[in-house]
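Q: I'm a student working through a structural biology exercise. My instructor gave each of us a protein and asked us to get a predicted structure, then write a short paragraph describing it. Mine is Cobalamin biosynthesis protein CobD. I'm not confident about reading structure output yet, so if you can add a plain explanation after the tokens, that would really help. Here is the sequence I was given:
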Amino acid sequence: MRADRVFAYGATAGLIADALLGDPRRGHPVAGFGRAAARVESLLWRDDRGRGALHTLVCAGGAVGAAALTARAVRGRPALAVALTAATAWSVVGGTSLGREARAIGGALAAGDLEVARERLPHLCGRDPHSLDGPGIARAVVESVAENTSDAVVGALVWGAIGGVPGLVGFRAVNTLDAMVGHKSPRYRRYGWASARLDDLAGWPGARLTAALAVAAGGRPRAAVRAWRADAGRHPSPNAGPVEASFAGALGVRLGGTLAYAGRVEHRPVLNGESGRDVRGADIERAVRLSRRVSTLALGVCVAGRMLAGRVVAGRGVAGTEAGAVVNGAARNAVRKRGRA
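A: Happy to help. First, here is the predicted structure for Cobalamin biosynthesis protein CobD. I'll explain a few features afterward.
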């Protein structure tokens, strides 16, 4: 079975498993990777970019290498290859858990239970919940749903289409390292620099695909494009900017503004400020539904792109074989003619 079909069947099965089961409840591979990365950090940490780069290389490179060896072990055995891809995709995507957490907070806000909403918010993002009122919590949830649609689903699918199982694992490893050490805190400003920059690079294609699909699936394409073009570049993150801006336009809300993170305050530009309104609790459900549509479309786009690339490669292989046969035939004929002479 060709590699493109292995990815198509495996990725589809993995996303179905995520939709039905959510994240693995025990022995989650990403959690295991996080523990291993924390152990490496305890051995390597210095307030130095070079040590941080070594940490990134050891952790992300080790994960990709292990995935490549595992994928190579099942090469030529289609059923095992598809099963490995499915299990890996299920482990690295997190769309269902993202939606569950967002809806739980939305339900608490709808019930008027602000304290429960504040207690659950850290499960979804790093904001300081005690500084937020109901609309502030709703805005934080919508922003997190938008950004994590790219980080938890679409980006992984893009790299899976490019690199198969090693691509899936590599993207999740890089994204996890960025979440662990890619901060601007005194401890990680230098040490986490390499992880943060690598995450920016790895997340670039998935973020643009997420933004484009939010335009297509959001029901307000002109507003989403306008917000993306006008506001994405003003966001401090090169990847969160396009995603959050397109979601803001698609949902007709304003995102961004003043944010509080564990004792520090950031004043970010407002996204879709001209035509959007303040976020309400009901917008959380709208954001989750948009996220699911974007994720489904992303699976289709990535599978189609991988299949197309596979056909192009296969066509070149056939053309090369035919050209080689023609050359070999011509050479044999020339030898025969010289023999007759």
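A: Here are two points you could use in your paragraph. The chain has one domain: 3-340. The beta strands are 255-261, 264-271. It's a good idea to check both against the output above yourself.
Q: Great, thank you!
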